[in-house]
Design a protein that fits this description.
single chain; 147 residues; alpha+beta; Aldehyde Oxidoreductase, domain 3; 3 helices; 31% helix; elongated
């Protein structure tokens, strides 16, 4: 059995539009791909108990989290006929309006990328051990609960 290496999905701070653009550009030479789908998770400036969120501080036990991301990735490849998939998640402080999660799925056909992307994002939200501390404008904070 050919075991694939566990990749580090984490990037320090926000995921830049330049990084996202470069990731897309790298796939132009892969001519068997007919469709890409991208999910960008962005930090919202929600209001909680009258206080506005200004940022989220992401933390994770990286070794365990990377293993879980790897399991989610492999399950997605087993379930869907996709060509490639990339997952990147922020660690550290990400301000409201910035990107904290970038998932990029490619396949020969478009329908597959829609289904695969929804599956992988829901799996990440449900199972990935990444924790976010919501930081408020008054410098107070609370742990984020995924919904």
């Amino acid at each position: 059995m050919n075991e694939k290496k566990t990749k580090n999905v984490f990037k320090e701070g926000a995921i830049s539009s330049e990084f996202i653009g470069e990731s897309i550009a790298k796939h132009q030479s892969k001519t068997g791909i007919g469709a890409h789908n991208i999910f960008l998770g962005q930090v919202r400036a929600d209001e909680v108990d009258g206080k506005k969120i200004t940022a989220i501080e992401y933390t994770a036990y990286e070794e365990m989290a990377n293993l879980k991301f790897h399991e989610i990735r492999e399950a997605t490849f087993d379930k869907f006929d996709i060509t490639c998939m990339h997952i990147y998640h922020s660690l550290g402080r990400v301000k409201a309006g910035e990107i904290c999660l970038f998932v990029f799925v490619s396949a020969p056909r478009r329908r597959i990328v829609f289904e695969a992307l929804e599956y992988v994002v829901e799996e990440i939200k449900a199972k990935a051990p990444v924790f976010g501390k919501e930081l408020f404008e008054d410098e107070s904070h609370q742990w984020k609960v995924n919904t």
